[in-house]
């Protein structure tokens, strides 16, 4: 997400998130550790189990409610009799929330970045060069200082000549200046267009031209790309670039930029400081952001997000994070152009937390860009709150398990014993509620694993895609922090449902946030009805303060997906299929667009099958394909390099490169057998299991345009790129 050179989140974990660190977890467990595990794992439970045995009472988290609009089964948050709109009185816009929070917390640390000490390039065995950074401690600016910078930037924009009736765009990786620029624009009621730094040229041109952006804010490394497409950009007048972003600030590009005013970010701040302009503050219904989604089909759509949408989600998520407070530290590294990160940082702003900026390439001590022997972002910052997409958490889990497997022997047995005991406690069988066993296991085994992400995590927010039950439980145990799964969309500014910190179940996404209602509307064709027993099922429809204004200059799509009921409430039809559990928590079970009817009339849910097959150790990524003119499915599989190479070595398979290994019949057979086993475990029907597969050696990354920034597959793009391969599978 927002990755640049040196790899992506689909790279092997040991390169990206520091899998080699996991090995060190085990080498210090000598006799004392094993004896301690035996004492805790066997003797203490025998003595105390009878005292603490008992079933936990189920908490009611969502309750049925009568609402307007299309008939269905609607639920609201059990703790909110009325929908929450603002975090506190008067904070009706992001401009107001920002100013009030900055004044309230003016002397406290707000935004932090690491100082670059040195950088060097190393050459790999295959000739590729990789940049390695030595980064220092975090250097902080206070809430008061950041507020002043945002005000200065806002004034500088006006003095620079930005037309206040036009939009500004931010085209950059996540960094403090991104956030400052956003807040500066809000102070002059300027709508901001957010664009992924990894967006391709066609999508970039489309986004900027459709919104008629006059000022583009970017990193200096993007200037050459902009110069190359300048002839296709219709409305750009000003370019403002961020300095000191780890690249040379080369603005001596071609004459194609001669019609633009090109300025450094610091110059705009200075201009505004010396010549301040009175703010022009927005209204709650005004458009704050036009956010271009890296959607799974076609060109990206711009979602119009109001100030009211943002503050409503921020206010609601604050109620979910346990005791969020000024002393919390948040590690910001996901793309701010993604709704999940922007929503999370808005929550931290409202709570008065500190935010330290990092990147996926510098996250841990052995991440791709971290110089050997120096510290990654998490080790230095020691965050208490972290956001993550499932792709990251899945790889953390895989990395730990692979290293445990490789270590073998006593270390493997110890981990398995302790993990099972800790799992029993988390699931509430006994002792877990009291906490003694948790404390002992944490001290004996998990402390060193947690040090990989700083050691102080107390809460993890997960969103962007479904998190598997295995990964959720695994990370919860090994990192010792509750994971709250969020469900939301850009169209609801991430605000739909959020699992609560004390909910130890897996596979669900919690009750509705207090800012909205969730309604299930029957989808007769798919066989999902809101009257189903014991759990209502249907298309998920979100209504309330987080529902956005629609798609920019696309009334047809807006009319398809948004409806306003007789009471004036906006509802967004997600296309996802869900079911409500008796306690009011939502579970995502299907997606309308992912259901394909085969030649003989059977329905296949592509997403459901892909999730089941992804449990195979051989699978790094997978796309199931079903053709209505055939009676079976096929699949494209990106195999795990590490796992497949290990199998080849053990099987005595010779090959020149990984591509050749993927083409070998015995390799395809091995992976297909693994998929069949996973399908059988998940109780899939025969027609749901791919009859043939194609192994693809290259990872699918956001840069390649084959997955979104949240690493959800782009089905149409994959089908187009691998059209010939899919035809051959059916041949």
From TrEMBL:
It holds the Pfam family AMP-binding. PANTHER family: LONG CHAIN ACYL-COA SYNTHETASE 8, LONG-CHAIN-FATTY-ACID--COA LIGASE. It comes from Lithocarpus litseifolius. GO terms for cellular component: endoplasmic reticulum; membrane. Keywords: Membrane, Transmembrane, Transmembrane helix. The keyword Transmembrane applies. It comes from the Eukaryota. The chain crosses the membrane at residues 29-52. GO terms for molecular function: long-chain fatty acid-CoA ligase activity. Residues 133-552 form the AMP-dependent synthetase/ligase domain. This is AMP-dependent synthetase/ligase domain-containing protein. Signal peptide: none annotated.
